[in-house]
Specification:
Blueprint lengths: L46 H7 L1 H6 L3 H10 L4 H8 L4 H11 L19 H12 L3 H5 L5 E6 L2 E3 L1 H27 L3 H26 L3 H22 L3 H20 L4 H27 L11 H31 L12 H10 L1 H21 L3 H33 L8 H22 L3 H20 L4 H23 L8
Antiparallel strand pairs: 1-2
Length: 501
């Protein structure tokens, strides 16, 4: 807890010293306590001399057990504590030392020492590359046959939804594994993981869409989307957001032209193909640069955490898709049912949620920064829990306010979109709270519990939607239950100092 921690099984063998990790270097005792039988000349309370010698250690301690651990590691026994210092045992002695020496914790570190300080411009850039791919659906809308139904949806739409969900899940797991290699400073293994995994994920997603079937043009669009998502994952993991933004430039320009003039089908297809070729080519170039180099490590990130990350991607993808396709699914299951009120508000809501992803990422960094500051300035465990809970509440509230503002802004510029009602706004905010809190817990390695809760909510929503449940009520219950469990879980788990190592 307080002394040097040795992680080398064969101390003394060549090279063992370089493999020893010291967590903290504590002051050593100048001499061990002398037994009372030697009749030393003691001060009225020998604790004063011990407190003076261990003043730095005692002042920095956050609990008496930290002092007791040092005393025991230094060889002090309960008998010596009783004979020399008149205390019942080492723990009682540590408690007296803790009470005798005033706390003197170091103040907050300067801003340049904050490891979680985020660049807001980079987060804004990532938000753009998360949102701009949605313009491809504007260019490819005519590829899906609205007059032919399959599974109750426009022909090709079910295949697109299934391929998108599979891509989200696979690429989430792929990114987690590649980031794990990067955390081990093994860039070559990270590049190899992306080079092998991205084409495999694209093949699985495109194959799933092909099996579900649809018009040939729609299936070609699905294949292109699957390839793009794999390439975009590789570029984002490698930190090449600017290159991805450049690859998206043709689609952004084409979407602007579509709003102004009527483009022929071949022109739209050429624009989409230009973006796809640019993204795949840039990803291949960046991966090729990193595949050459030193050897790889024998062992890598945990497969268990990678699996949990993939399931998490599947869950949040399902929750988001139901928020967008909920009215369409309801109409497909119950064709004779009346139109869902406010169904036209789902478009602006999804745009707002997508545009908010850059801010969500910045707020994740902001929370980590505030938690690190709380670690340095809190004077007790309760104080740390209070500070982290307030930081969590502030970041979450800020994110929900931003999503609300973005939704109203998107509705204002969306053609003939109705203003979002209180029920749908509540459902949107519950979804946003679920996604942001789950992302925070995932970032702090609370993987399986987070994935399990999100999967349960997604399973409930998809089951209720396929059985004809009202879309708004389905989201209220599903995301409401998930948020009601995830937020308290975050308060409790992230209130532990060990979670912020």
């Amino acid at each position: 807890m307080s002394g040097p921690l040795r992680l080398v099984p064969d101390e003394g063998t060549p090279g063992w010293a370089e493999e020893t990790m010291r967590l903290r270097t504590l002051p050593r005792r100048r001499q061990r306590p002398v037994p009372a039988a030697a009749h030393p000349e003691l001060s009225p309370d020998p604790l004063d001399e011990l407190a003076d010698r261990l003043a730095e250690l005692c002042a920095d301690a956050v609990h008496p057990y930290e002092i007791a651990a040092f005393l025991e590691s230094d060889g002090l026994t309960d008998e010596q504590a009783a004979l020399v210092y008149g205390r019942a045992d080492a723990f009682t002695l540590a408690e007296d030392l803790f009470a005798k020496v005033a706390r003197r914790y170091p103040g907050p570190a300067p801003a340049d020492a904050d490891p979680w300080r985020a660049d807001p411009w980079r987060c804004l850039l990532r938000g753009l590359v998360f949102a701009l791919p949605g313009l491809a659906y504007l260019l490819g809308a005519d590829l899906f046959s609205a007059h032919r139904l399959r599974f109750g949806l426009p022909s090709g739409m079910a295949a697109l939804a299934a391929a998108t969900l599979l891509s989200w899940a696979f690429n989430q797991a792929l990114a987690h594994r590649a980031y794990g290699w990067l955390s081990l400073a093994d860039r070559r293994s990270a590049a190899r993981t992306l080079a092998l995994g991205a084409p495999l994920g694209a093949l699985l997603a495109a194959g799933t869409g092909w099996l579900l079937g649809g018009p040939l043009a729609a299936l070609l669009f699905i294949i292109g989307q699957s390839l793009y998502l794999g390439a975009a994952t590789a570029l984002l993991v490698l930190g090449q957001e600017k290159l991805l933004l450049a690859a998206l430039a043709p689609s952004a320009t084409g979407a602007a032209l579509v709003l102004a003039v009527r483009l022929p089908a071949w022109a739209k297809a050429a624009i989409l193909l230009a973006t796809l070729v640019a993204a795949v080519g840039l990803a291949a170039w960046q991966l090729g640069r990193r595949l050459s180099g030193g050897g790889a490590r024998a062992s890598g990130p945990s497969w268990s955490a990678t699996t949990a990350s993939g399931l998490f991607g599947l869950a949040v993808g399902t929750l988001t898709m139901i928020a967008g396709l909920g009215p369409a699914l309801h109409h497909a299951v119950r064709p004779t049912a009346p139109a869902v009120p406010g169904a036209g508000a789902t478009g602006p809501a999804l745009v707002a949620l997508t545009l908010s992803l850059g801010l969500a990422e910045w707020l994740l960094y902001r929370y980590r920064s505030l938690a690190t500051r709380a670690l340095r300035s809190s004077t007790s465990s309760a104080d740390f829990r209070r500070r982290t809970a307030l930081a969590l509440a502030g970041c979450l509230l800020g994110y929900l306010l931003a999503v609300t503002a973005l939704d109203y802004a998107a509705t204002a510029v969306w053609a003939r979109a109705p203003l979002i009602g209180p029920t749908r706004l509540t459902a949107l905010l519950l979804l946003a709270a679920t996604l942001w809190t789950a992302l925070l817990l995932q970032a702090l390695s609370v993987a399986w519990r987070t994935s399990g809760l999100c999967l349960a909510a997604a399973g409930f929503e998809i089951t209720a939607a396929l059985t004809g449940g009202d879309p708004s009520s389905v989201q209220l219950y599903g995301c409401g239950a998930a948020a009601a469990l995830l937020v308290p879980l975050a308060v409790v788990v992230l209130g532990r100092t060990t979670r912020h190592r």
